[in-house]
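Q: Please design a sequence for this.
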């Protein structure tokens, strides 16, 4: 997942990239990944004490859900929207806008980096460089409402990745694992990123596969 929060002058004040935890046994879908990315982003904005936010989304279906123009017809989407609506109560102003894919390149990169961090962790058996809840900030945030509207960009991604064991070559056995990540950033009124957070999305219930001989073996 990737997300970015900006202030009213397009200054980035917060960025986040983290792995997403999907529901065990549930098929992966873009509404689920993007929806959970939004939930994580709103949690981050609320934790910063922000009161007025404008959230930008490049996924039309999710935009239709959050604006009430379309009602979700599956329970998993309803549950995500319930979380979103509950988190919206943390803010005195919370609006959503639809933007183009090209306008979220920065948080797309953050989400991709969150996935890459998981690949490195699986291949080296070491801790991911992006700790759960880790963040960086270029300015202190006040819990009081300063009247400013902060811009938030976010992105959720997932992909099937080929992961090799330690010391293996391209011809060795490997496994295919499904990984997801989130990235977000906050901008202030001077268009400066003032806060950045990076975390991984752990996929439970999605086993990997190993190529041996001429067939796939499920792990």
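A: Design:
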């Amino acid at each position: 997942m990737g997300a970015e929060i900006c202030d009213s002058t397009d200054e980035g004040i917060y960025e986040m990239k983290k792995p997403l935890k999907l529901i065990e046994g549930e098929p992966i879908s873009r509404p689920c990944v993007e929806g959970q990315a939004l939930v994580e982003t709103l949690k981050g904005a609320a934790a910063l004490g922000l009161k007025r936010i404008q959230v930008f989304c490049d996924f039309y279906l999710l935009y239709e859900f959050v604006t009430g123009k379309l009602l979700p017809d599956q329970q998993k989407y309803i549950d995500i929207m319930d979380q979103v609506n509950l988190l919206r109560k943390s803010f005195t102003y919370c609006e959503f806008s639809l933007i183009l894919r090209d306008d979220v390149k920065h948080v797309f990169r953050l989400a991709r980096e969150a996935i890459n961090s998981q690949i490195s962790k699986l291949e080296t058996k070491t801790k991911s460089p992006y700790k759960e809840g880790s963040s960086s900030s270029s300015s202190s945030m006040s819990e009081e409402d300063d009247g400013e509207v902060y811009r938030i960009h976010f992105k959720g991604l997932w992909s099937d990745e080929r992961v090799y064991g330690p010391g293996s070559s391209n011809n060795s056995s490997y496994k295919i694992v499904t990984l997801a990540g989130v990235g977000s950033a906050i901008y202030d009124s001077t268009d400066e990123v003032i806060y950045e957070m990076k975390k991984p999305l752990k996929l439970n219930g999605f086993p990997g596969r190993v190529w041996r001989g001429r067939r796939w073996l499920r792990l």
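Q: Thanks. Anything notable?
A: The beta strands are 2-6, 12-18, 52-57, 93-98, 134-137, 150-164, 174-187, 193-198, 209-212, 215-218. The CA atoms of residues 58 and 100 lie 5 Å apart.
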